[in-house]
Amino acid sequence: MKKKKIIIVKLGGSAITAKDDSKPEVNAANLERLAGEIAEALKEDKFSLFIVHGAGPYGHVPAKKYELNSGLKSTKQVIGISDTHHSMEGLNYIVVTALRKEGLPAIALQPSAGGILKNGKLIKFPLDVIKKMLGMGLVPVSYGDVLIDEDKGISILSGDHLVPYLAEKLKADRVILVADVPGVFDKDPKKNPDAKIIKELGRKSVRQIREIGSAKGTDVTGGMKGKLDELLHLADMDIESEIISGFAPGDLERALLGVRGIGTIIKKDS
Amino acid sequence: MKKKKIIIVKLGGSAITAKDDSKPEVNAANLERLAGEIAEALKEDKFSLFIVHGAGPYGHVPAKKYELNSGLKSTKQVIGISDTHHSMEGLNYIVVTALRKEGLPAIALQPSAGGILKNGKLIKFPLDVIKKMLGMGLVPVSYGDVLIDEDKGISILSGDHLVPYLAEKLKADRVILVADVPGVFDKDPKKNPDAKIIKELGRKSVRQIREIGSAKGTDVTGGMKGKLDELLHLADMDIESEIISGFAPGDLERALLGVRGIGTIIKKDS
Q: Which of A173-182, B29-38, B122-131, B214-223 has the lowest mean pLDDT?
């Protein structure tokens, strides 16, 4: 039996939650549309799909309040671990429900139930379970979470760290990042109406952009630094990723069905 | 640092869900009372606690509909895996919320995210993560779930199988099973108003009861056969368990605080 392609989709927190950081709220209309596009694309039965979603205010607010990313330093943080995970699980339940409403056999995958970090980097994740789930056609839906950390006691696993980890370990064929921007711009689009989306990025071009930026005192990749560094690492292993907009109807479905170049592609030797 | 005692509590499905099998519904009043008793007992900070809850109609109905315990035989079951897990996760979210309302640092622990069965028996579970959670004072809350099975593709992990597995692996000091009966009766209490709770059970006494029962054509341990067999296995390893009522106010709190003999104790050499 020929192995199906594996696609990993990251639904950015900014694409599925409301922007107001003061209260956790879902962007239900956008989430439902994205779920519909995923279901449409999966109908052609061409690939296995793993979904990771971001946190938005659901995770960032309690994680910041209890300084969970600094490690376990006080017993006062323990209730914060419970708060943060419970909040993220609430969001995950809503995302899985939205996907199931479209008929998808979606299944939650709680990172903190089996994953372990070491100084913030994943060193253990239930890949055996995930491979079996993908093999039988389930759509696992995972997320950023607070995990046991071998060095720090606890630490935050961000969706942006989980996605490339899974892409590498599962030998994914494609990684699609659904963001609130249509890709990486060549200039700050807020200040430059003529800013354009960079079609392809790699280590070389990112270095050039950063050099230009540092001469000008700005870095257009700055806001995406963590994300880009992870994706460049993935590109080193020849796994291509693409950042697309979560607000342009049809873009996710087209990307899932194989259209490349809708947003910014991050690949080797660019 | 002295290692705290570890107690494992099973909140039976019959104690926290409504009895009507046709619709999944929580017995909110009873769940809240039990959560309150757990919180009270934990205030004395004498033990670490792991909670497992049963399924009631939340798990049994979809699992039966899709015959998940017979293994993966058809692609039609895949949506049933999603249905069953999502339903159980919904119940788990309610249970964790009830515990958190009492101030407990409760945290969900999804069995299917890391556990693996082999012909229905657990062969893998994230014990490393669980030990760290217990060590920092978190209260993990796990449940019956549908898991990857190495032989059968998928299979059901029941709470009654998970509890003794964890008790053995975590070297638990005490196991408390909260049921809808106050223990194991010596006669069928529905037919015999003078039926009494058996105070202690072990392999020897269970054998005697079953011999008497088979002579009379009845077995008073019949309804609890699977549960008792697992608990007797635990008793062989010198881990004592006790079945108590989930409907007698105060019983769970007292049991957690060390009172023995409220219900039926299952122990070695009885």
A: B214-223
The residue of chain B nearest to residue A133, with distances taken between CA atoms, is B148
Residues of B within an 8 Å Cβ radius of A: 72, 75, 78-79, 81-82, 85-86, 89-90, 93, 96-97, 100, 103-116, 124, 126, 128-129, 132-133, 136-138, 148, 153-154
3-class state of residue A265 by DSSP: strand
pLDDT at B43: 94
Spell out the alpha helix ranges (H) of B115-250.
Answer: 127-135, 159-169, 203-216, 225-236
Q: Which H or E run contains A212?
A: helix A203-216
Sheet containing A5-11, strands listed edge to edge, beginning at the edge strand earlier in sequence: A106-108, A139-143, A47-53, A5-11, A174-179, A241-245, A264-266, A200-201
Q: How close A230 gets to chain B, by Cα (Å)?
A: 24
Architecture of the domain whose range is B6-266: 3-Layer(aba) Sandwich (3.40)
**Nearest C-alpha neighbor of B69 from the set B164, B145, B10:** B145
Task: Tell me the ipTM for this assembly.
Answer: 0.94
Cβ neighbour number for residue B253 with a 10 Å cutoff:
18
The pTM assigned to this predicted structure is: 0.95
pLDDT score at A61 = 87
Taking 70 as the pLDDT cut, the residues of chain A under it are 1-2, 218-222
Count how many Cα atoms sit within 13 Å of the Cα of residue A253 in the half-sphere of its side chain.
13
